[in-house]
Design brief:
The complex is a heterodimer of chains A (312) and B (280). Chain A is of the alpha/beta class and 312 residues long. Chain A contains 11 helices and 13 strands. Chain A folds into 2 domains: 3-229, 3-Layer(aba) Sandwich (Rossmann fold), CATH 3.40.50; 233-295, Alpha-Beta Plaits, CATH 3.30.70. The two termini of chain B are 36 Å apart. The chains are: A alpha/beta (312), B mainly alpha (280). The complex binds adenosine-5'-triphosphate and magnesium ion.
């Protein structure tokens, strides 16, 4: 089944979704290959969740082509969904049921036997660290626990493709790292991951390849390293001069760096050697209140592409 | 740790339906939705269940045995005299079936649609909207059926079921509950507020009072009779009454057909609406 390493499992051509006149996803093209971790990155309202829902065959596209495992979502929805694990952005737990019942009944929806699910539910409760909470109502869990339960639920049917819409939002740092670890292991077992996130470190850590979306369109595509190389410099120098003085300072700095971004609270200077540039600036008599030299990240790629910050 | 089979069971199960008609909307697993109903029901309030069941029993006591003493016997439509209690008992049985089904298919479904997220969860799995419609309608039907079984258990020992045909009142009640559950869920799926939901109650009360439940519809002028006869409760009351009084004639099949159409129509609209609401 995992014979051809590069088998395409999801393919979208001119994929478009309109809600009445509003275009939420605007003719995007992409492909996801088996076993890779594919990321969708973009600010609020970019169309990430809408794209995820179309892939998950719970939302019908307006136009374009979409194929999941060679199947057509409009006519083979249930068959496609049998292959998928879905963790929606909104947790959508069954609030009338207990924690374990949420996992069990969901497995039953797929037609899985009670015997199979008996063990599976235990395994997943452990996975989500919710064994002690098994008898609680789903509604009574904390936000992060609900998230973990939703993730566990997405694994009940042993999916080949796991769709995670902002999986770590609301998780504490420890739970977040545990989840990353689990996702890595699933990937090692050949599971294809499709992930949306606002967190740059998450995208850099988890995704082999990603698309950057904004206003329903794809702005760029590639591996995190490729994107950083293509759209940003090696290092970034961040300077703060104080809220009113940033604009004036920027005027004087703009010829010193490859590129400059003036944000409300700070100035970003793109350069190959951050420390050298800082020395140069201080020598020139400009005195920033704070300064920081760091490696370029996907955040910078995004800023470059859209002129806007990713986390608003 | 999480194990990963080569072809998961879920896929193997679903592939058996591949190529069958309706595969986009139906996976043949609405029973799993009934199961979910039982789990949710275990932790719900029994008081509501019981109150829905005792209502028709109170009507039977108050009207059948109270007012019935003032009225005396009635002509049953086939020329025989029957007691007033025996006249209204079948109508109350049909009403029990209706009440149980409607309660679940309207208020409970409304809650699940707008607050419970239950249908989004189901439709995210490999179930289709017709599975969900059929499962939820069957669940509502079960409540209707259990109310009418409870009612039968009370009226049979006190001698209000006088012949064997009366046993057919149970499948008839199932049919009635199915019809009301189906149409109830379909209508609910179009409603958006509690205010609109109250219209259902507003419509049900007069239908209960005037569908030949407590007196024959022959007291009305012709045109009102026609309207009443078009209403589902009258169809149900006529069906159950004829069976319980042993008046068997081919016209009963007309009532059965009425409910079959109601069931099919309700299922169709519910499926369409579930798709429109949760898979847009
Ligand atoms: N059901 C809907 N009806 C109308 N508009 C919608 C609907 N769902 C999404 N939209 C609109 O489509 C756009 C894209 O929404 P989407 O949820 O895909 O964004 P997103 O990239 O997931 O954003 P976020 O990071 O905030 O989750 C938004 O402008 C949103 O308002
Ligand atoms: Mg989203």
């Amino acid at each position: 089944m995992f014979a051809t390493a590069k088998e395409i499992v999801i393919s979208a051509r001119s994929l478009t979704k309109k809600y009445k006149d509003f275009v939420a996803v605007d003719g995007i093209d992409f492909e996801v290959r088996r076993g890779e971790a594919f990321g969708l990155l973009g600010p609020n309202g970019a169309g990430k969740s809408t794209t995820m829902k179309m892939i998950a065959s719970v939302s019908q596209r307006t136009s374009g082509d979409l194929s999941i495992l060679g199947k057509e979502p409009n006519t083979q929805g249930p068959e496609i969904r049998a292959h998928l694990g879905v963790v929606p952005q909104k947790d959508l737990l069954d609030r009338e049921l207990k924690v374990w019942e949420n996992l069990f009944t969901y497995g039953r929806y797929f037609g899985l036997s009670r015997k199979f699910l008996k063990d599976k539910v235990e395994e997943l409760l452990e996975f989500a660290q919710l064994t002690e909470k098994r008898m609680s109502k789903a509604d009574d869990l904390s936000g992060g626990m609900q998230r973990r339960l939703a993730i566990a639920r997405g694994l009940v049917n042993e999916p080949e493709i796991l769709m995670l819409d902002e999986p770590t939002t609301g998780l504490d740092p420890q739970a977040r790292h545990i989840l990353w670890d689990r996702l890595f292991r699933l990937k090692e077992q050949g599971v294809t991951l499709v992930i949306t996130t606002h967190y740059m470190d998450e995208a850099e850590q988890l995704c082999d390849r990603l698309i950057v979306m904004d206003k329903g369109k794809i702005m760029a595509e590639g591996s995190p390293a490729e994107l950083i190389k293509k759209y940003s410099s090696k290092e970034v120098l961040e300077l703060r001069f104080g809220t009113d003085k940033n604009e004036a300072a920027a005027e004087q700095l703009k010829d010193l760096a490859e590129r400059i971004e003036v944000l409300p609270d700070r100035i970003l200077l793109y350069t190959q050697k951050g420390e050298d540039l800082l020395t140069q600036i201080v020598d020139a008599g400009l005195n920033p209140i704070t300064s920081l030299v760091r490696r370029s990240s996907l955040e910078d790629v995004f800023l470059r592409l859209t002129g806007r910050s990713l986390v608003e | 740790m999480i194990t990963q089979a080569l072809v998961s069971q879920a896929v193997a199960i679903q592939e058996r339906r591949s190529g069958k008609p309706g595969q986009a909307v139906y996976s043949g697993r609405s029973r799993t939705i009934l199961e979910r109903g039982f789990y949710a029901f275990k932790s719900s309030s029994w008081l509501i269940v019981i109150s829905g069941f005792v209502e028709p029993v109170f009507y039977l006591l108050a009207f059948g045995f109270g007012i019935g003493q003032l009225i005396g016997d009635l002509e049953d439509g086939a020329g025989n005299l029957v007691s007033y209690a025996a006249f209204i008992a079948p109508a109350l049985l049909a009403t029990s079936a209706m009440n149980g089904a409607i309660y679940d298919a309207t208020w409970n479904v409304f809650f699940k649609m707008h607050f419970g997220k239950v249908y989004q969860v189901m439709l995210q799995s490999s179930l289709g909207p017709l599975d969900v419609a059929l499962g939820e309608i069957s669940w509502a039907l079960l409540r209707g059926l259990s109310y009418s079984l409870g009612f039968m258990a009370i009226v049979t020992p006190i001698g209000l079921v006088t012949n064997l045909w009366g046993l057919l009142a149970i499948p008839a009640a199932t049919l009635i509950a199915f019809g009301f559950a189906s149409i109830g869920m379909a209508i609910t799926s179009y409603l958006k507020s509690f205010q609109q939901m109250n219209w259902i109650t507003f419509f049900l009360l007069p239908m209960f009072l005037f569908s030949g439940t407590f007196f024959p519809v022959s007291v009305y002028p012709e045109w009102i009779q026609t309207i009443v006869q078009a209403l589902p409760l009258w169809q149900g009351v006529e069906l159950v009454r004829s069976l319980m009084l042993g008046i068997i004639h081919p016209g009963l099949l007309g009532h059965v057909l009425y409910f079959l159409v109601m069931i099919a129509g309700g299922l169709w609209f519910t499926t369409v609406r579930l798709k429109a609401l949760f898979m847009r």
